[in-house]
Amino acid sequence: MLTGHLPRDFPEGRDPWLVVLEDDPVPIRERTPKLPRPLAELIDHALREELAMPFQSAAEFRKALEGVA
Question: How many CA atoms lie within 13 A of 36 on its CB side?
């Protein structure tokens, strides 16, 4: 929503499911360079594919967002 783009690039001819499973999200400041760095780092962290979710709830993510605003 902040960039007007999806978090990943979906090249023509590639299976979208494989893109999600195999490709990392595009760093948000590559899409919107003027985005404040702390906000961009938080969003990039939230989108990382890790074994453990970076935030356990929407409330936890909201609190983190409020901390960078």
Answer: 7
pLDDT in tens, the chain (69 residues): 889 999 999 999 999 999 999 999 999 999 999 999 999 999 999 988 777 778 889 999 999 999 986
Give the separation between CA 42 and CA 44, rounded to whole angstroms: 5
pTM reported for the whole predicted model: 0.80
How far lies 28's CA from each of 1, 24, 43, 51, in Å?
Answer: 11, 12, 7, 21
Amino acid at 9: D
